[in-house]
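For reference, the entry.
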Amino acid sequence: MNVKQVAPPEFYTGAPVDHTDLRYREEFLSLLWETLARNHVLLTAPRRTGKTSVMDHLLHHPQNGFLVLKENVQDLNHPADFFLAILARFHDEHPKLLRDTLSTGWTLVKSAFDKIESIGASEFKVALRDSDPKWQENWRKHGETLLDRLRAHGQPMLIVIDELPDMLLNMRRDHPEFLQPFLAWFRSQRLDPNPKSDPIRWLVGGSVNLSSTLDSVGMVDLINDLEDLTLPVLSEGQVENFVFTMLKSRGVPFAPKVPAAVAGVLGRPIPLFMQMLTQDLFREWKKANDKERPLEEADVIAAFERLVRSSAAQDRLQHYYSRLREYYQEPGLSAAHTILGKLSLSADGISRRGLNSEFERHLNSAGQSLLPHESKQAFNQLLRDLANDFYIEEITEDQFDFASGILKSWWKKYYA
């Protein structure tokens, strides 16, 4: 009798984890669907920790009768483009619903479909723009028409919007006059009708904290209706289970302490780097002459040091440095660099008082003059922002350190 060999789980070191291979998120997915049954959701998570994979799972495994649509709006900067992207995604993922139901009596979309028959479906966005020369001016009208038609259709619809904070920051830079009107309009659409009686659900997410983004421009109250869910950090036990499974399934011998050693060097794990580190351990064993020698803790340390120096990690971690310039304003920007640099050099983190002293010292050296209450407010806000944006965490009461072990080591090497 032939026994079918089961392929070992895949490593994911580039693209998001495929929805068929998503692990350790079952409880969170249940909570997410339970929350979506009654409200709209704000999903926050740092970059490379699995947010997109969770969103893809919602798309491919809908529950409660939901039809799911997912769109990344990271590069958009105008409310009109927001609805244009959603309509184009409908065309790609649910063309029959759009053509046979939503477009009935809707001149804008009907006209675009008429043109598509001769110019091809890839030009759908262009056809929509051509159908209304004043597309940008009429963004409210088109948005309301779309939502009204979805509600009239009646089927529960989950619209997943990824990287909304980036779109809002783009809008603040390129079209600031639309930022408050769009957010106010979007909030009113989420509240009327009441979510319990509305077939439409919104799930918005981003790798930059949306609350911090809007708090900086005094508009955080325009998202306070969203139920805030943060993607849980993988536990040490889950990291150890991952390492054990990935190595064991490939026939790699390893000492019992190896999975815990991987969890230890990663600190608060970024799943991408957990994948990369474990894959490197496997590849080094595969290249070794002695396949009988089990991997030891020293191999984990060596693999971690290689990872910190690698160009692959550099490419992915550089975002954490460069995004400070995009999302933080002075004096917070340079103060954030100072605090993160000091933390990267610390063995076990720095107390709140110690970080406050570094903050004051930085302000003085930069010639920044703030009143005591202003300085305290600015420091507390910066600490909240760095925590909300997943750079740091409070490891014990009033003691802070980098949230990620690999980010700390990388920051120390290149920017301390």
Summary: The chain is about 55% helix and 10% strand. The chain has a mean pLDDT of 89. The first strand starts at residue 41 and ends at 44. The CA atoms of residues 236 and 263 lie 6 Å apart.
